[in-house]
Amino acid sequence: MSSIGRASVLIGAGTIVSRVSGLLRTIVLVAIVGSVGTAAGDAFGLANQLPNNIYTVISTGVLTAVIVPQIVKAAAHADGGRAFVSKLFTLGTVILLAATALAMIAAPFIVTIYIDPAKVQPDQIALATAFAYWCLPQVFFYGLYALLGEILNARKVFGPYTWAPIVNNLVSIVGFGAFLLIFGGPSPDVVQWTPTMIGMLGGVATGGIVLQTIVLLVFWRRAGLQLRPDFRWRGVGLRHIGRLAGWTFLMVIVGQLAGIVQTRVLSGASGTGPAIIASQNAWLVFMLPYSIIVLSIGTPYFTQLSEHAAAERHDEVKADIVRSIRVLGLFIVAATAALAIAAVPATRVFTNGADEALAAAPLLLCFLVCLLPLAVLFVIQRTFYAYNDTRTPFFFTLVQGALVAVTALAAGAAASAGVIPITQLAAAVALGQSFSSVVQVVIATVILDRRLGGIGIREWMPQLLRFVLVAVPAAAAGWGVVLLCGGTTGWLASDKLWGALGAALVGTVVLAVYLGILALFRTPELAPALALGRRFLPKR
Fold first, then answer.
1. Domain range for residue 9?
2. Distances from the Cα of 524 to the Cαs of 289, 467, 521, in angstroms?
3. CA–CA distance from 11 to each of 22, 81, 265, 276, 504 (Å)?
4. What is the pLDDT of residue 1?
5. Rg of the Cα atoms in the chain
6. Each residue of 100-116: pLDDT tens digit?
7. What value does the mean pLDDT take over residues 107-129?
8. Per-residue pLDDT tens digits for 35-90
9. Burial (Cβ within 10 Å: 0-12, 13-18, ≥19) of residue 306
10. For 522, left (φ over 0), alpha (ψ -120 to 50), or beta?
């Protein structure tokens, strides 16, 4: 547990700094393009999301599902896996260059896939396309960063992959700040944007990703590997990798298709209420606890779980599943309760007014429905990957993707018919996504339980339910703080700074009450969780 703890703290500390700097980056960006009812903001949000979509394909698809287990196995080779990694890195670089070139050529077509021309003005499509030309080179550097980072993770060098994004955020904060000094803001109207403004904003966004990737190369020697271009790909097991990656690729394609449907539906609310960039900002807040808690604790567990699965130590795999879900659940339930109660002040940080915060807060609440299920899915899905099974995750992800698309279309139809106001369209889409994720994790858990002859559901499910029950009085205490501070229209939503301080205050109260009740009932997971938390504090 000590090695898992040290790795978790290293990843968690880096993730905290990365996410906090990322929040500051978003605050400055919102000051430029706006958040709610901004056509220009939605245009930039779409363009800057395109390379991220491909990054998702690489990082959560082929790399996590296939490459990490294969590198762990290759470490047993006589050369420690050096030849395998060099061949893999060379192949990945060639594929990334080709994908980036194709994406640049097809930029206008890609933009129109994500935006419904019947619902969006031509000027907004033109602006999104112009931003896309500046942002799409990120595809290569995002992919290279993901490839280098997962190789380092597989070699148990966890720190650089987590800390490198801080460089990107710092570059973006400085660059976006310079933009504000030169051009001012916010500029939500698409006709206000000149080529110089477009080039500066898009160039800063891409430049940060370039430097983020370079940082990983500095730490490469720590992995004990020497990278050399190697085009002799025969014999490296690419056919086996390709067979595994094929299902993963199809799985991610399903997710991307569902995402396209969501974005096209959201484009109908662009300029009138929360839409594309507001959804991205709400998702950013939602991902803060997920990244800090799930990725920092779950990533080292996944490497250990892969080792146990490769050695066919199935009982230890089951023990890893139980331990990781129970520890993750303790933290995630507290985070969900705190964010739900502090939804308005937390959202105020990423909006330019109290009214915008009230309009965007339902988005965050709807996303939070699936925070705990996604934490469980992280463990369940990666257990399939550890056993080199990418076929099964494809099928339960297919169900989830279909539900995401259907619920998004239903929300769009409801908004068009006047059943729900257009200002609640984005929240309805988010709720549909959460519902789809809950269904996905239920299916995945049932299948894995049957596959392994039990994964200790009776050991972790009742404990998760107890955590939820404990969170109810903790959330009530947090809501009391909100009421004492004037409610959702009080000082908590009066300004970005007060919103951040208010969210921190509410979250602290919720967490204190939550931990106090757990300590009162002597919850067994509390001791290792607090021990893990103390690792973040200075020794003195």
1. 2-534
2. 22, 12, 9
3. 16, 24, 36, 30, 22
4. 47
5. 23
6. 898 899 999 999 999 88
7. 90
8. 998 999 999 999 999 888 866 665 555 555 555 556 666 665 656 566 777 777 77
9. buried
10. left
d(Cα 93, Cα 514) in Å, to the nearest integer? 47
* Torsion 54-57-60-63 (CA) sign: negative
256 within a domain of the structure (yes/no):
yes
* In a domain? residue 180: yes
- With bands split at pLDDT 50, 70 and 90, how would you rate the model's confidence at 407? very high
Smallest CA-to-CA distance from 147 within 72, 90, 103 is with 90
Total of domains in the chain: 1
Residue 539 DSSP code: -
Where residue 312 falls (left for φ over 0; alpha for ψ -120 to 50; beta otherwise) is left
Q: Can you give the length of the chain in residues?
A: 540
Mean pLDDT of 395-409: 94
Residues 497-534: tens digit of each pLDDT: 899 999 999 999 999 999 999 999 888 877 766 666 55
Q: Which residues contact 528 (CB under 8 A, 6 or more apart)?
A: 1, 327
How many C-beta neighbours within 10 Å does residue 173 have?
Answer: 20
**Residue 525: C-alpha distances to residues 62, 330, 518 (Å):** 33, 7, 9
Question: Is residue 539 one of the residues assigned to a domain?
Answer: no
- How many Å from the N-terminal Cα to the C-terminal Cα in the chain? 23
In-domain check, residue 540: no
- Contact 411/266 with Cβ under 8 angstroms? no
Q: CA 125, 130, 134: angle at the middle one, nearest 5?
A: 140
User: Could you tell me the pTM of the whole model?
Assistant: 0.83
Lowest mean pLDDT among 20-24, 73-77, 315-319, 493-497: 73-77
- Mark 66-96 as b/e (b = at least 16 C-beta within 10 Å): bbbbbbbbbbeeeeebbbbbbbbbbbbbeeb
